[in-house]
From TrEMBL:
UniProt KW keywords: Oxidoreductase
Protein name per UniProt: Glyoxylate reductase
Gene3D superfamilies hit by this protein: NAD(P)-binding Rossmann-like Domain
Organism of derivation: Neobacillus bataviensis
Similarity-based family: Belongs to the D-isomer specific 2-hydroxyacid dehydrogenase family.
Length: 329
């Protein structure tokens, strides 16, 4: 019997044909509606491989159902939606999609900074709504980006790539990371700073840190109050690193000038969320890596990882390094 592969979102047939040629593949029919929990649990019982997205909770109960499950290929760099400990104990390989999305996510992150700084979305809507009746010197005036101080919280691959873009704007770049990056300091001219110093000194703060127990709710009201009143906060990491109520209160109180957000604590974010009512918030639907080229490469990497595991080979991007395959079935 052919191995069974379940895909939790609708994907182009051309990209998953390599799987269909070798395995029994079933795919959720929607790309914009999450697979219901009960269906995910039922599919996990049958699956040798799961092709998942970040919105799918692959917790202990799902993994426990996967008696034959050998691999979970997650269409993301992040994997905080997956119980790694349980997966390793059960001999289930967890794979992600790093590297292929670094430049694309950095592009979007810097674009989000520019949109928030120069009030681009607000200005575009101003024109479309017919409000532009005359030109005036300070109409929708934003803030300069060049020669300002940028603080990057989380200097991984994407953080370093954002820093490269910032050098083109002659920005003074600070960074905070769990470990110092001497090579990045030398090559990019970035300066290590404590978290406290970074938030106090930066004109723009970009959050790119992974979600961990240490970074959960990292940005509190107290942190926002330490920022410059002219500061703009950008989050392209994970929604849960920010206390959203604290961010809303800081914006309402004028403690910071604006925010650009690609991620939220609850996704999709409810339309009545207070942050969406503020004109100085640019909100995007978690599209950091969403270019046609990059999403195609991410799908192809997931397909390669699944095929490698099911064919008894090492996957290209293994997350749980302590994984060892178990005899199943």
């Amino acid at each position: 019997m052919k191995p069974y592969v379940y895909i939790t979102r609708k994907l182009p047939d051309a990209l998953v044909n390599p799987l269909k040629e070798k395995y029994n593949v079933h795919m959720w029919k929607h790309d914009d509606i999450p697979v219901p929990r009960d269906i995910l649990m039922e599919e996990a019982k049958k699956a040798d491989a799961l092709f998942t997205v970040l919105a799918d909770s692959i917790d202990e109960s799902v993994l426990a159902e996967g008696k034959n499950l050998k691999v979970v290929a997650n269409l993301a760099v992040g994997f905080n939606n997956i119980d790694l400990k349980t997966a390793s104990e059960k001999g289930i390989a967890i794979c992600n999609t790093p590297d292929v999305l670094t430049d694309t996510t950095a592009d979007l992150t810097f674009g989000l900074l520019m949109a928030a700084a120069r009030r681009i979305v607000e200005a575009a809507e101003f024109v479309k709504e017919g409000k532009w009746q005359a030109w005036s010197p300070f109409l929708l005036a934003g803030q300069d980006i060049h020669h300002k101080t940028l603080g990057i919280v989380g200097m991984g691959r994407i953080g370093e790539t954002v820093a490269k873009r910032a050098t083109g704007f002659d920005m003074n770049i600070l960074y905070f990371n769990r470990t110092r990056k001497p090579e990045a300091e030398e090559q990019l001219g970035v300066t290590y700073a404590s978290f406290d110093d970074l938030v106090k000194q930066s004109d723009y703060i970009i959050c790119l840190t992974p979600l961990t127990t240490e970074t959960s709710n990292m940005f509190t009201r107290e942190v926002f109050q330490k920022m410059k009143q002219s500061a703009i906060f950008i989050n392209a990491a994970r929604g849960a690193v920010v206390d959203e109520q604290a961010l809303y209160e800081a914006l309402m109180a004028g403690e910071i000038a604006g925010a650009g957000l690609d991620v939220f604590q609850k996704e999709p974010i409810p339309a009545d969320h207070p942050l969406l009512k503020l004109p100085n918030v640019v909100a995007l639907p978690h599209i950091g890596s969403s270019s046609t080229e990059t999403r195609t490469a991410m799908v192809q990497l997931c397909v390669q990882n699944i095929m490698s595991i099911l064919d008894g080979k090492e996957p290209k991007t293994l997350v749980n390094k302590d994984w060892r395959p178990l005899v199943k079935g």
